[in-house]
């Protein structure tokens, strides 16, 4: 029996399950860099450079560790895998279960002439079976319950043993301490960046050729800027990013993690999600290292617990829910929203609103925006403007450096757009311009007034927010957590509400063409 191992592009850890099932010399290893991914989605340049360069570097690292590795560039996966199977006489092909459901289905549809062996993923702390066993116990699957279970299960930031163990410091959650608005002049430490080596430069050159081919075919270039590129592309570099975060950003992570500052796209954020999602880092090693270093250095518990909650809590929770909710989840559309995406989203700028254009400009440059920019600027706009949930979720997937189906379906469609009707979040995260003005610095340079709801100078977030509440009042009124804002809506003078809604309609009509 000739064993083959196919390593997918987001499974780049030396101990991932398929590689762990053999030793070097016992199997042939394959990685495929397929251009077919662009036939379905026009991905951000930075994302493609990251994934393809990381795959090429991982292939070289495996070879250096003694594995027999083939790295193939191809027009599609099926042609490349079949040719490799024939060349090596492969009779059994082992794969670690993909995180994304659609990739698992696509591989099954290839009908490869070998015995396929699917190995359970070890890229997450909770297996799908363990998460399902936890979820089956509850009617509502809330993050806080899951997070506490994870803290106990893995013994993270705990005092004592077993079921009697208590959270370090006496609290499970310090989120209330981590919502400070940005003071004037707030600046975070500089992120760690890496100069592209020859391997990365070759990928950049390939993408230039792809853009030229797209132009010949009458297609737009891929979105986002190709250079400068400074993301880590190897496990060694990703570990350096982790240590740099611990040394320069961990202690300050908590207080301003929800702040949004013009010209400061990263502040104290960890910038680890791309490497966790590609497998260059494993979540448990990151959590253990953060815990050990944070306690040794006396890092404020609010900062240490805050970043661990994002990995041990939110990341594991959304991945588990993605598989628990099932294949029909991406088709959910609780509010029946269907507005097409405005042109300025694809162009990554040109909305006329400083908050949106600042975030889109940072996204255009790096493929990154932090979690509050994603939730309370981009997704919030999509929710209150009534954008099509599936289309906006796909846009997030294409544009973000850390985006995959399992990430974006739960985070955007569920948390950001409430399109699942509350399966994930307990209420819609809809907000007016007041929130952005309080937690960000964008409004000071904007031609719109965050205090006005109607008229030419009104902040579009204000008009859209009240219009959303009025449009969706029957559904929103059924949610107890929306009772206060519904009462505020009902107290508005009818003539004023009509003027607000006219302002919202005018914005949607003009804004879809890129003129806010």
TL;DR of this structure?
With 516 residues, the protein is α/β, with parallel strands linked by helices. Helix content is 49%, strand content 6%.
Strand and helix layout:
Layout: E1 3-6, H1 17-20, E2 28-34, H2 37-40, H3 45-64, E3 68-74, H4 77-88, E4 92-96, H5 101-109, E5 115-119, H6 128-135, H7 143-154, E6 158-159, E7 166-167, H8 198-216, H9 235-248, H10 273-278, H11 283-297, H12 301-325, H13 343-347, H14 354-366, H15 371-384, H16 389-399, H17 405-416, H18 433-439, H19 460-471, H20 473-476, H21 483-491, H22 494-511
Parallel strand pairs: 1-2, 1-4, 2-3, 4-5
Antiparallel strand pairs: 6-7
Helix pairs in contact: 3-8, 6-12, 7-12, 11-12, 12-17, 15-17, 16-17, 19-22
């Amino acid at each position: 029996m000739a064993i083959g191992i196919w390593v997918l592009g987001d499974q780049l850890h030396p101990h991932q399950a398929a590689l762990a099932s053999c030793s070097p010399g016992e199997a042939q290893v394959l990685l495929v860099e397929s251009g077919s991914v662009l036939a379905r989605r026009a991905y951000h340049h930075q994302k493609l450079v990251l994934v393809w360069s990381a795959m090429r570097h991982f292939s070289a690292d495996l070879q250096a560790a003694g594995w027999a590795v083939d790295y193939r560039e191809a027009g599609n996966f099926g042609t490349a895998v079949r040719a490799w199977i024939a060349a090596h006489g492969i009779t059994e092909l082992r794969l670690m279960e993909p995180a994304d459901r659609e990739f698992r289905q696509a591989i099954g549809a290839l009908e490869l002439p070998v015995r396929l062996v699917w190995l359970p993923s070890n890229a997450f702390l909770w297996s799908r079976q363990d998460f399902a066993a936890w979820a089956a116990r509850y009617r509502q699957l809330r993050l806080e319950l899951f997070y506490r279970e994870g803290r106990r299960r893995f013994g993270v930031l705990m005092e004592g043993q077993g079921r009697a163990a208590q959270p370090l410091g006496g609290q499970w959650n310090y989120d209330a301490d981590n919502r400070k608005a940005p003071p004037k002049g707030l600046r975070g430490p500089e992120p760690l960046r890496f100069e592209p080596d020859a391997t990365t430069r070759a990928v950049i050159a390939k993408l230039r050729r792809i853009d030229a081919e797209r132009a010949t075919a009458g297609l737009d270039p891929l979105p986002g800027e190709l250079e400068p590129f400074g993301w880590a592309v190897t496990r060694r570099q990703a570990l350096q990013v982790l240590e740099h975060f611990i040394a320069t950003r961990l202690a300050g992570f908590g207080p301003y993690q929800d702040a949004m500052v013009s010209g400061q796209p990263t502040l104290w954020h960890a910038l680890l999600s791309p490497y966790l999602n590609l497998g260059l880092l494993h979540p448990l090693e990151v959590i253990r290292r953060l815990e050990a270093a944070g306690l040794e250095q006396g890092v404020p518990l609010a900062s240490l617990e805050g970043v661990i909650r994002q990995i041990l809590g939110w990341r594991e929770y959304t991945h588990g829910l993605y598989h628990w909710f099932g294949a029909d989840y991406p088709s959910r559309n609780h509010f029946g929203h269907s507005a097409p995406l405005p042109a300025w989203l694809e162009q990554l700028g040109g909305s006329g609103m400083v908050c949106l254009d600042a975030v889109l400009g940072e996204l255009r440059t790096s493929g990154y925006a932090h979690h509050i920019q994603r939730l309370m600027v981009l997704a919030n706009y999509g929710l209150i403007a009534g954008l099509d949930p599936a289309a906006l979720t796909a846009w997030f997937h294409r544009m973000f450096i850390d985006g995959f189906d399992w990430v974006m379906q739960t985070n955007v469609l569920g948390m950001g757009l409430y399109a699942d009707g509350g399966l994930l979040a307990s209420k819609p995260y809809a907000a007016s311009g007041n929130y952005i003005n309080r937690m960000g610095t964008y409004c000071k340079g904007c031609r719109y007034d965050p205090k006005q709801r109607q008229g030419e100078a009104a902040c579009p977030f204000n008009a859209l927010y009240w219009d959303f509440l009025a449009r969706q009042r029957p559904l929103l009124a059924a949610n107890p957590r929306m009772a206060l804002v519904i009462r505020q809506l009902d107290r508005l003078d009818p003539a004023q509400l009509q003027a607000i809604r006219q302002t919202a309609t005018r914005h949607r009509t003009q804004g879809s063409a890129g003129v806010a």
